[in-house]
Structures are given as C-alpha cells and as structure tokens.
C-alpha cells in the first residue's frame, strides 16, 4: 500500500506545472550561484596574485630592509565563494610590521561599496531563500489540498491507514523534491571541477557538509509546512501561515536576534578599547620623545657629528633596547584589553546566535558558515595566525636590519659617507627572503566540532516536524 | 459605478483573513524595524559622541602636537534609520595627519562580524521584501480568482463596463495596501518623536519622500499582480508566475546586475591602487635621497676649502635647498596620488553607472537606490566623506604646522611618509586644542537627497504607469467565459 | 428476500462535541442488488451517515456494518468491500484520467489491471476516447464525475456509496449515469446514494429513505411509492405533518 501511495505522491509532484516552474527557477539559481562564485573566485585570486606581485616588486625596489613596507594579503578560499558569510566584511590586507598592532583593512565591501548595496548571490542565499520557499510551496496544501479536492475521502474509502498515507506523503515529498535538487547541486560541483577551482579533499568534504546541511534545512521547511497543512483545514489559511513562518524565520528572526542580543548583553564600544590603546601608545611616544631628547642632548655634547659611525651604532643599540621594552609593554597591555573585550563580545554573540536558532534558516546559516570557515570567528582566527606569522617575520627583519625597531625609528642618512659612487650602489632586496604567510585552513575535526551542534539541531527539527506532521494527521478530520 | 466596485474590493480585502494576517505582519515588521533603526541610530550616535570625546580628551592630554592622533568621525545621520544602505560597510572614521592617507576604517560590520552575518533589518528591507510580497499576495487572484468563483460573470451581468470595473478594482486594492503602510509610517513617526530622535525639517521631508517611494513601490507590485492575474485563467498559475517575477526582481536582478557590471568593467582594487602609490612613493624617495647624496657630496667637496665661519651659512643654504627639493618631491607624490585616485574614481563611477542602469530594470532596485539616496547611505557616501576628510586634513595639517614653530624640529619617518613635529617648551605643558579645526560632515541637504532620489522615483512612477496600462489593456481583452 | 444485507445501519447516532445531534438512531439496510436513496435537505444527516460508514467519524451510538463487518471495529477491513464517490470530485489535476483510475484501482487492491482494462471501464462510463490520456486539469464537472464513477466501478466492491452523484450533470450524462447504476445493480451490488433530488430518487431507487434533522423519517419501497406523490410525501414528512 505504501508503495502505491508513494508512487502517486512522486508522480503528482513531478507532473505538476508548479514543480516544473519552481524547479527550473531553483536549478537556474543554483547554477548561477556556482557560476558567479567561480568567476568571483577566479577574479579575486587574480587580484590577490597581482597584489602580492606588486608588493614583492615594491620591496625589491628598495635597497634598505629598514625601509620596506610589507603587506600580507588574505588569500581567497574556494568555499568562501559558496558561503560568503562575513568574508566580504573582513579586511583583506595587513600592513606587516615587526611590532605594533596588526590591522586588517580594505574589506571587499568597504573598499567597494557598490557590491555592498545588493550584496552577492551565493549558494547559501539560494538555500536560505529559494529552497525554503520551494519547500513551503509544495508542503502548504499537501494534506488539506487533497481534502479540498475530495481525493482524501476517496483514498480513505479504501483499505488505507492514516499512518501509511502520511508516511508516504512525507517520504514522497522529500524524495520528489529533494532528489531533483541534488541534480543542479551536482552539476555545480562538476562546474567547480571543470573550471579548475583548486579544491582540496578536505574542501570537498566541507562542501558536501554544506549541501547536506542545506538539504536538511529544506527538509525542515517541507515537514513543517506539511505539518501546518495537517493542522489547518483550509489550504489558503495554511499557505498564509507557512508564508508568515517563512518570512519570520528567513528574514526577521536572524536579524532581530542580533539586535535583541545587543540589548540583553551590552558590550562596551570598541572605540573605548581603541582609545585606551591610543592613550597608551601616545604616552609611550611621549616617553620615547623625552628619552630620545635626553639621549640626543647628552650625545651631542660628547660627539661632534651625526655621521660618526660610533654614534650611529650606539643609536641603533639605544633604539633597540627602547623598542624591546615598549613593544613588550604594548603587547601585554593590548592583549589584556583585547581579551577582555573579546570575552564580553563572545557572550553577546552566544546570546545572538542562541536566539536566532529559533529559526531553521539561521541554524543552517550558522552551520554553513562554520563549515565554510566564514563565520564570525573568521577574523579572530585569521588574526591569530597572522600574529604567529609575525614572529617569523620579525625574526627575519631582525636578521636583515640588525634591529627590531621599526615603530619609532630615526633613520639617519649618511650624506658624507663613502667617497665614490661605487660604494653607494647598494644591492636591491630580494623579497623572497621574507617568509611567506600561508593560512592554515581549519581541520576536519574542528570543522565538524564547530558545526555538529547545528547539524544535530537540524536533524532534530526534521524529526520533530516529521513526527508533528504524523501526529497531526492522525487527528486530522477527514470529512 | 467604479466607486461601488472599489468599495466592494476594499471591503472584500478588509474582511479577509489574508488581509488581517498580511497587514498585521507588515505593520508589525515595519514598526519594529523603525524601532530597531532608532535604537541602532541612538547607539551609534552615543558611540560617535564618545569616540570624538575620547579622541579630544586624549589630544588635550598631550604636550606636543606630534603625539596627537587626530581623527575625523562620520556623524550618524538620523535618516539612516530608514535606510541603512552601505552605512555599516564603510569605515566610521579616518585618522587625520600629515603623512597619513585618508582612509575610512573600522566599519561597523568589520568591527562586529556578528552584525554582518545576518545584516540589518531596516524599513527599506521590510518594504523591499515583505510589502512587495504582500502586494502580490493581495492581487494574484484579483481577476482570475473572481472568474474561478464565478463572481466575475455575475458582476458583468449588470450594466458595467470593463474599464470601470478594472479601475474600481485597482483603486480598491490600492487602498487596502495603502492602509497598513500609512498606519505604520504614522506609528513610526510617533516613535521617532517619542524616542527623542532629533529630526529637522529636512529629515521629515525625506521621511515623507520615503513614504512616497514605499507607496510607489508597493503599487508597482500590486499592478503587476493584477496584470498577471488578468493574463492567466487559473489563480494557481498566476501565483507561481508572480512568485518567479518577484524572486527575479527583488533577489536576482539587483545582485546579478552589479556582478555583471563588475565583470564587464573591471576596476583595479584598492590594494592595487595603494601598491601603485607605494611604488611611486618609494621611487620618488629613493631618487630624492640619491640626488641629495650626490649634491651633498658636491657640497662637502666645495666646502672643504672654506673657513669655519663660512661653513655655517653654506650648510644653512644647503638645508634650505634640500627642504625645497623635499617639498617638491612630496608635492609630486600628492599630485600623483590625486591623479591616480581621480582616475580610479572615474572608472568606479562608470562601473557604478553600468551596474545601476542594469539593476534598474527591477522596481526593487529603483526603490532601494532611491531610499539610499534619501537616507544618504548610497554608494557615493564613501567618496563624499573621503573628500570632506581630505579637505579637513589640509586644514588640520596647516594648523599643526603653524602651531609647531620653534624648538627642536624632528621628522619621524614611517613607511609611507613622514610627520613633522617639534618639541616645544617643557613637556609638562599640555597643548591647547580649543582652536583645533573641527571636522564638519559633508553637506547632504534635503535638496541633494531628493534630487538624487528623484530620478529613481521617476522611474518607479514610470514603471507604475506602464504596469497600469498593461493591466488595463489586458483586462479589456480578458476572456470572461 | 433471500439477498444478504450488504450495508446495514444499526441505530446510528452521532452527537458532536458541541452538543449538535447530527444523527438520531438511524437504522436501515441495503441488500445486494438494491439501490437505496437517502433523500433529504442539506444538513439532514445524509453525509454524516456516509462518513460513519467510511469510518471518517465514529458513531456516538449504534454500528455501521459493511458486508457484515463492524466498521467501528475494523474500518480497514470493512473498506475493502466498499467503493465510494465523494461529493467533491476534483481528483488529481496533474494526472490523466487513466492515471487517476490506476492509482485508485491499486489502492482498492486491483494490482494487475492493464491499460486496456482501464480504457474499458472509462469507455463504460462514457468518457470520450481522446480524454483518456489527458490531464484532469481541463476536465468539466461531468467528465470528472465520469472518471469518479469509473473509480468506483473498477474496485468491484459489493457495496457502493455515492454522495450527491448527479449534482451538476447534464441530462444526457445523468441518463448514462443511471444506465450504469442499473447495470451495477444487475451485478448484485448494494448501492447507497445520497441526494436531495426527489425526481432522480424516485426514478432510480428501489428504496427511498427520507431524512430530516438527523432522523430517518420514513423508508418507502418502489412499490409503495408507485401510487404516491413522493414530492408531497417528502414535504409532508419534513414539515412534520405525517408522524414518523
């Protein structure tokens, strides 16, 4: 019996105009999002390579390691194109220096507000907006629509149990709608291959996880709307209800939760932190000026000329020692401030995401961003890696310049130095002597750990609404 | 006769569950989004006050202009309550000082990726998505639904012309959509007053225009709904068709248009521009130093025979000469930077023009662009602020230069420029910042915003006219059977 | 009368939760080869009776039997022996006539019918050949009704329940419909029809039950009716002029 009902359900959906139109729309959008993502990726990789090359050329044009201005660029990751997350809001460029605070600047959207106006069309967006709508469109009249058409009575004038009917309805809808959606997704994956997007095995696994999460989210909406359809007698009412649920969970709850969280758990303005930092560094600078002034006046008495090599060497030593002291103090002070703020912020974020998890699409989004590594923690993780890299960078610079000072530096040119031009021709620098920064992607274990909770929630929601639809139909008034 | 139809239509809507639910939801959301906007604005305003105050406090504690880090802050504008636009994407302030490029940093979204993850819920968004969906929901079966229920034939069994009928129908539906929008805008206005947002006449004028834009936009989708409903005979089909149109117009076309424009007219990235500047800068400095070295060598040679008392003026002359050369080099860098940025902005504005022209096929983009202009949060915002800040930078550096005369002159070299400061007097004496020039936000008046929005509003109106005519004509030829 | 009772109502009573008594001790039976017409106004309790027979509702009191099986005890087994046609016959608009028939036939336990078998049944109910493989979307009410009838026929159940089957049919279609009913009766089916159409009731039925406000007021056989004016009788009954 189940088989007959299931078969009918599959056919009923696949033969309908509704399916033809909506499936075509969804498929086109999936393919479009893949295509757009791929082109965007290629473009940003190109830009990234360009930026790196120019940076290297700029360094190579210098003759003095103390004069270089190194920049580190965030490399675009293939998964970012499918799940944008916050990637376009996080800066891409860092001015690398041995000491002082590192900053990420020139985020895509701040550098290019044009793209911020309408934002990008990524796979995540298609899952959240289009697939969920697609699910509701087929679920809202699954039960009460059959009642209105009189077929429910006809079916139940036969030896058909309610359980087998609702089961076939649920399974049939999931199969008839879910499986066709896999087709454009798979074609999209083939496109990734065809365009030669360099994806590691781990990235394929992560992409697979995003797709699974997306289908789970789709399943939640499908079972939810079928449940609503089994609870409400008229399909026009269940449609409205489903649509309201959709609007709230897709558009309202996620955005609202963030604002609500900032009311519940307030975090001091980041500017206060910034000001404290500035005050600290201004004090340091003041101190530096005073000490340097003293040093100079004491030296000027004893030494006749700035060009004296003894003077230059002792100045370098002096600067080095000052640098060391002040940099250590700064790093300690800053990290304490940052950590304190970070903790409060974490608390707020936990609130925000906790509240937003009322909505299945928010759960999916959080899961997808965590899997793709474009979640809110992205900036923090990147900065951590960057400060680790900075140690290697600083070490190189120390070796090259013989000094770690770069923040407060006085460069004295020796006008009267060498006696012939030959001596003045300094060697150009080789930028490849600076170690390269390579971002380490999150491991599989971390990815799974970060997304497990939300994936689990999606599975549970599927089960709950499946059970809910089942229970609701057992009590459904067939008349 | 059309009055009767309009009245019936309005009553039909008002008494339906559909209206109750849809109007309730849209009103709730609109009022909520305005409330959220106000809260957000007030938080930002106090953050701004705090930021500026802290910056000034810090400056006033300094005893030397050299150690002052001045910055220019974007002052939040109450209009961003209505349309957040790119407001949260572009930096909130820029450090100002000689040797520093004006660069807006610390955008709200980059400071707080949590906000970026789900973005803002501003009234523009609610109207863009929810109101249009509701307008479609109200009208997708306005013609073929009546046919399905048989009332169409009943009505036309009386002496009524098709033209009268469709006009009445449109007017009735229009009022049904207008009502919740009007009510929520009134409540919104009340909230703005009650929550103590200081909105001036220009602000209220822009609020009015925002309402107008919303009504025009909703009408657009209402007319489209009637049009499609009159094109098809089954309401289930017309709903599907409208849903596809809605998805395309609201979600796809705007995004696709900007991406297409990005592809068709590539513009170098900021990183690239900055790299070019750096390399020019480096080159110029190297040349300058090499030249200086050469000249100094010559000088020293020529000075070798001088008497000690002759040396002093010679060195001074050399320093003056050097200073002039340095000025020349720095001017060269500034000119180059101005040139390259001008070129960049020209390319950008061409790209934007293409993107927006393409996007404007969709009434949703017309609406969005109009409201961003009204809110002052359009793409031009970044450049407006940067220009104002560049002007301010000149003002400020002149002021500091004047202040910083005498004492021990020192040049602190950072990679991309140098800061001149001086150490005057005893370090204990704090500087006086009361006369320091203040940054003034770029002028964005009622006139500018409305003229900016007028074109898009006009387009929207034009779209309405087309949709109206289309709905009208199609209904005149509608098959009643 | 040696024919067995196929459909039997024993003191069927249905009181809804809100206290409304929809059915009040209704008893009747339909034998094999008999057409029984429940005649009554809207709200008289005809559809409630049918709902009880199909197990869509549980009776407050009394038992509906199909082929001797207590519907309240084993609704699924009972439903194997009944074919039903509902008052709203929209069917599945995306399916063709044959596909609709196929689905319901298999639900009714007919698993190995061929395409030709379905065509035969469809021909039997008088659907045009060209409509066999067309989707039901474009069908008129009469055409859908024919497909519905085909669905009830194909099940080959001993009992047939038809809810307002002739409403909306044109005279020709109604006539064809009657012919089919007679054929089914000849095959020995027990047929229960609900209708508010007095003339049709008199024309087709062997027995007429007059219902009003949940009560079965009278049961008249064809022979008894031959000399009476059914319309007058009906109006008298429901206005309470004749004691039940």
SSE layout and pairing:
The complex is a heterotrimer of chains A (479), B (481) and C (244).
Chain A: H1 2-14, H2 17-60, E1 70-73, E2 93-96, E3 104-105, H3 108-111, H4 113-118, H5 123-139, H6 144-148, H7 151-156, H8 162-194, H9 201-231, H10 235-264, H11 270-302, H12 309-356, H13 360-372, H14 378-401, H15 421-424, H16 444-474
Helix pairs in contact in A: 1-8, 2-5, 2-8, 5-9, 5-10, 8-9, 8-16, 9-10, 9-13, 9-16, 10-12, 11-12, 13-16
Chain B: H1 2-14, H2 17-60, E1 70-73, E2 91-96, E3 105-107, H3 108-111, H4 113-118, H5 123-139, H6 144-149, H7 151-156, H8 162-194, H9 201-231, H10 235-264, H11 270-303, H12 308-359, H13 363-375, H14 380-403, E4 408-414, E5 417-423, H15 446-476
Antiparallel strand pairs in B: 1-2, 2-3, 4-5
Helix pairs in contact in B: 1-8, 2-5, 2-8, 5-9, 5-10, 8-9, 8-15, 9-10, 9-13, 9-15, 10-12, 11-12, 13-15
Chain C: E1 5-15, E2 21-31, E3 35-40, H1 46-53, E4 61-66, E5 69-70, H2 75-79, E6 82-85, H3 97-107, H4 115-124, H5 141-154, E7 159-163, H6 171-186, E8 190-195, H7 198-204, E9 207-212, E10 215-221, H8 222-225, H9 230-238
Parallel strand pairs in C: 3-8, 3-9, 6-7, 7-8
Antiparallel strand pairs in C: 1-2, 1-4, 4-5, 9-10
Top keywords for this entry?
heterotrimer; A: elongated; B: 481 residues; three-stranded antiparallel β-sheet; two-stranded antiparallel sheet
Please describe what this structure looks like:
The complex is a heterotrimer of chains A (479), B (481) and C (244). With 479 residues, chain A is an all-alpha fold. Chain A has helices at residues 2-14, 17-60, 108-111, 113-118, 123-139, 144-148, 151-156, 162-194, 201-231, 235-264, 270-302, 309-356, 360-372, 378-401, 421-424, 444-474, and strands at 70-73, 93-96, 104-105. In chain A, strand 2 (93-96) and strand 3 form a beta hairpin. The longest helix of chain A is centred in the last third of the chain and has 48 residues, at 309-356. With 481 residues, chain B is mainly alpha-helical. Chain B has one domain (1-266, 360-481). The two termini of chain B are 22 Å apart. Mean pLDDT of chain B is 86; it is low at 405-426. Chain C is α/β, with parallel strands linked by helices and 244 residues long. Chain C folds into two domains: 1-81 and 159-170 and 190-244, P-loop containing nucleotide triphosphate hydrolases (Rossmann fold, 3-Layer(aba) Sandwich), CATH 3.40.50.300; 88-156. In chain C, 34% of the residues lie in helices and 26% in strands. Chain C has nine helices and ten strands. Chain C has helices spanning 46-53, 75-79, 97-107, 115-124, 141-154, 171-186, 198-204, 222-225, 230-238, and strands spanning 5-15, 21-31, 35-40, 61-66, 69-70, 82-85, 159-163, 190-195, 207-212, 215-221. In chain C, the strands form two sheets. Chain C has a six-stranded mixed beta sheet with strand order 6-7-8-3-9-10, with helices on both faces. Chain C has a four-stranded antiparallel beta sheet with strand order 2-1-4-5. At the A-B interface, helix 2, strand 3, helix 3, helix 4 and helix 5 of A face helix 2, strand 3, helix 3, helix 4 and helix 5 of B.
């Amino acid at each position: 019996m189940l088989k007959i009902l299931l078969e009918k359900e599959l056919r009923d959906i696949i033969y309908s105009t509704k399916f033809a139109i909506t499936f075509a729309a969804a498929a086109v959008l999936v393919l479009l999002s893949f295509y757009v993502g791929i082109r965007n990726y290629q473009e940003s990789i190109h830009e990234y390579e360009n930026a790196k090359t120019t940076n290297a050329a700029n360094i190579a044009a210098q003759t003095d390691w103390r004069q270089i201005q190194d920049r580190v660029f965030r490399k675009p990751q293939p998964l970012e194109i499918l799940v944008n997350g916050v990637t376009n809001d996080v800066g891409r460029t860092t001015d690398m220096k041995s000491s002082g605070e590192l900053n990420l600047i020139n985020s895509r959207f701040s550098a290019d507000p044009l793209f911020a106006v309408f934002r990008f069309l990524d796979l995540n967006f298609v899952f959240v907006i289009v697939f969920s709508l697609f699910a509701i469109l087929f679920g809202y009249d699954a039960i009460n629509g059959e009642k209105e058409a009189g077929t429910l009575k006809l079916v139940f004038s036969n030896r058909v149990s309610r359980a087998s009917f609702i089961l076939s309805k649920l399974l049939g809808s999931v199969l008839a709608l879910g499986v066709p959606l896999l087709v454009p997704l798979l074609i999209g994956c083939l496109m990734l291959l065809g365009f030669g997007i360099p994806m590691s095995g781990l990235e394929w696994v992560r992409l697979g996880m995003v797709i699974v999460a997306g289908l789970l989210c789709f399943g939640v909406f499908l079972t939810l709307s079928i449940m609503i359809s089994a609870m409400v007698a008229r399909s026009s009412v269940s449609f409205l209800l489903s649509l309201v649920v959709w609007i709230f969970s897709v558009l309202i709850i996620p955005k609202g939760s963030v604002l609500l969280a900032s009311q519940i758990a307030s975090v001091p303005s980041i500017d206060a932190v910034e000001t404290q930092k500035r005050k600290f560094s201004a004090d340091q600078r003041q101190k530096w000026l005073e000490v340097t002034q003293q040093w100079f006046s004491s030296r000027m008495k004893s030494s006749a000329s700035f060009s004296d090599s003894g003077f230059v060497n002792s100045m370098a030593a002096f600067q080095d020692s000052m640098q060391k002291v002040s940099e250590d103090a700064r790093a300690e002070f800053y990290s304490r401030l940052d950590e304190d703020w970070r903790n409060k912020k974490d608390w707020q974020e936990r609130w925000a995401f906790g509240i937003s998890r009322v909505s299945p699409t928010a759960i999916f989004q959080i899961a997808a961003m965590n899997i793709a590594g474009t979640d809110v923690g992205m900036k923090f993780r990147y900065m951590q890696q960057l400060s680790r890299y900075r140690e290697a960078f600083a070490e190189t610079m120390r070796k090259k310049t013989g000094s770690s000072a770069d923040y407060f530096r006085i460069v004295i040119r020796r006008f009267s130095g060498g006696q012939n031009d030959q001596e003045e021709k300094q060697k150009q620098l080789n930028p490849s002597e600076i170690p390269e920064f390579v971002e380490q992607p999150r491991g599989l274990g971390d990815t799974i750990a970060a997304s497990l909770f939300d994936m689990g929630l999606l599975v549970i929601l599927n089960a709950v609404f499946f059970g809910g639809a089942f229970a609701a139909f057992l009590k459904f008034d067939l008349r | 006769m059309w009055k009767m139809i309009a009245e019936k239509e309005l009553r039909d809507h008002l008494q339906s569950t559909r209206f109750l639910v849809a109007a309730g939801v849209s009103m709730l959301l609109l009022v909520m989004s305005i409330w959220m906007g106000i809260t957000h604005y007030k938080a930002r305003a106090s953050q701004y006050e705090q930021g500026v105050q802290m910056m000034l406090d810090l400056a006033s504690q300094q005893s030397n202009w050299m150690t002052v880090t001045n910055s220019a802050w974007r002052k939040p504008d109450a209009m961003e309550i209505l349309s957040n636009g790119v407001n949260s994407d572009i930096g909130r302030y820029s450090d100002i000082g000689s040797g520093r490029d004006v660069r807006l940093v610390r955008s709200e979204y980059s400071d707080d990726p949590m906000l970026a993850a789900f973005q803002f819920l501003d009234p523009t968004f609610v109207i863009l998505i929810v109101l249009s969906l509701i307008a479609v929901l109200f009208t997708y079966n306005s013609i073929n639904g009546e046919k399905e229920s048989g009332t169409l034939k009943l009505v036309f069994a009386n002496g009524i012309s098709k033209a009268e009928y469709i006009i009445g129908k449109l007017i009735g539906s229009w009022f049904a959509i207008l009502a919740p929008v009007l009510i929520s805008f009134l409540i919104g206005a009340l909230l703005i007053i009650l929550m103590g947002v200081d909105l001036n006449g220009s602000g209220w004028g822009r609020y009015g225009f925002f309402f107008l834009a919303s009504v025009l936009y909703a009408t657009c989708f209402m007319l489209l709904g009637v049009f499609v409903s009159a094109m098809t005979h089954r309401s289930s089909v017309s709903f599907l068709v409208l849903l596809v149109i809605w998805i395309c117009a609201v979600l796809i076309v705007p995004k696709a248009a900007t991406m297409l424009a990005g592809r068709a007219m590539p513009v170098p990235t900021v990183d690239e521009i900055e790299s070019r500047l750096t390399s020019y800068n480096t080159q110029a400095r190297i040349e300058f130093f090499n030249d200086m070295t050469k000249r100094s060598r010559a000088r020293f040679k020529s000075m070798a025979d001088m008497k000690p008392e002759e040396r002093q003026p010679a060195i001074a002359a050399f320093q003056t000469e050097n200073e002039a050369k340095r000025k020349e080099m720095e001017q060269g860098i500034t000119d180059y930077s101005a040139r390259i940025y001008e070129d960049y902005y020209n390319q950008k504005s061409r790209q934007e023009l293409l993107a927006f022209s393409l996007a404007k096929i969709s009434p949703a983009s017309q609406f969005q662009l109009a409201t961003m202009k009204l809110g002052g949060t359009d793409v031009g915002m970044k450049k407006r602020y940067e220009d104002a800040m560049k002007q301010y930078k000149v003002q400020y550096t002149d002021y500091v230069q004047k202040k910083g005369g005498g004492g021990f002159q020192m040049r602190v070299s950072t990679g991309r420029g140098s800061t001149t400061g001086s150490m005057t007097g005893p370090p204990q004496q704090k500087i006086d910042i009361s006369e320091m020039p203040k940054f003034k936000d770029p002028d964005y008046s009622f006139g500018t915003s409305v003229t900016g929005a007028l074109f898009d509003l006009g387009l929207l109106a034009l779209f309405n006219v087309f949709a109206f005519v289309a709905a009208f004509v199609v209904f005149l030829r509608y098959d009643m059977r | 009368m040696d024919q067995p009772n196929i459909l039997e109502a024993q003191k069927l009573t249905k009181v809804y939760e809100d206290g409304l008594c929809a059915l009040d001790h209704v008893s009747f039976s339909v034998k094999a080869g008999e057409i029984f017409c429940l005649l009554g106004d809207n709200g008289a309790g005809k559809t409630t009776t049918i709902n009880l027979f199909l197990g869509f509702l549980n009776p407050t009191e009394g038992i509906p039997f199909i082929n001797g099986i207590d519907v309240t005890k084993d609704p699924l087994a009972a439903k194997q022996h009944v074919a039903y046609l509902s008052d709203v016959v929209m069917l599945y608009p995306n399916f063709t006539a044959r596909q609709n028939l196929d689905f319901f036939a298999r639900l009714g336990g007919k698993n190995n019918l061929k395409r030709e078998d379905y065509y035969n049944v469809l021909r039997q109910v008088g659907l045009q050949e060209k409509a066999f493989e067309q989707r039901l979307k474009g069908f008129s009410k009469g055409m859908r009704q024919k497909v519905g009838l085909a669905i009830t026929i194909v099940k080959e159940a001993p009992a047939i329940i038809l809810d307002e089957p002739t409403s909306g049919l044109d005279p020709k279609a109604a006539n064809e419909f009657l012919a089919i009913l007679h054929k089914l009766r000849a095959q020995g089916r027990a047929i229960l029809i609900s209708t508010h159409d007095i003339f049709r009731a008199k024309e087709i039925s062997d027995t007429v039950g007059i219902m009003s406000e949940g009560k079965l007021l009278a049961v008249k056989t064809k022979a008894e009716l031959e000399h009476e004016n059914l319309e007058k009788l009906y109006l008298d009954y429901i206005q309470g002029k004749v004691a039940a």
